[in-house]
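Before relying on records like the one below, remember that each one covers exactly one chain. Contacts with other chains, cofactors or solvent are not represented anywhere in the record.
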Amino acid sequence: MSKLVIATNNRGKLREFEALLAGLGAELLIPSDLGHPLDVAETGATYAQNARLKAAACARATGLLSMGDDSGLEVDVLEGRPGLHSARYSGAGASDADRRAKLMNELRGTPSPRSARFRCALAVARPEGRVEVFEGTCQGEVILEERGTNGFGYDPLFFMPQHGRTLAELPDEMKNRLSHRARAVQAALPYLREVLGK
């Protein structure tokens, strides 16, 4: 079976990718499974650059086809913040709850609806150096009350009007079709199948 390494140390993210790539017929691993703990500084100026850095470093270290991603929440009334700094929005060591609290605090007094989008860049790197990037977005709005428990990060605040629910209220099968990461994976699938000979 072909192997695909996901450039993360997070087994939760690996499980999400296993669900998104279930039909690919590849064995998904993370670098630590191969004895290569991943520590890549996200120094890029864009999601795509950060995704490239992670995927390329992973492919070099493991000698296998590798995939890295970077994503963020962009809120229009905050001029695109937290954006590229979504994971570090409340500083080092902050929890998801801390980041959500900071976002709600910043948005108090702003008019509703607060249009926003999640954006994801997904990079696929071959060991010889070629890297391709695929992107996905998910449009919605930010609400000021947390709803749902099926998600992480900002999911409980990201409301999708067309579905009447937040991302954290959606069942996995819906989320795995509609999320920014799911859409980036869908864009990457034809290339992944080609590279893996599927």
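The two ends are 11 Å apart (CA to CA).
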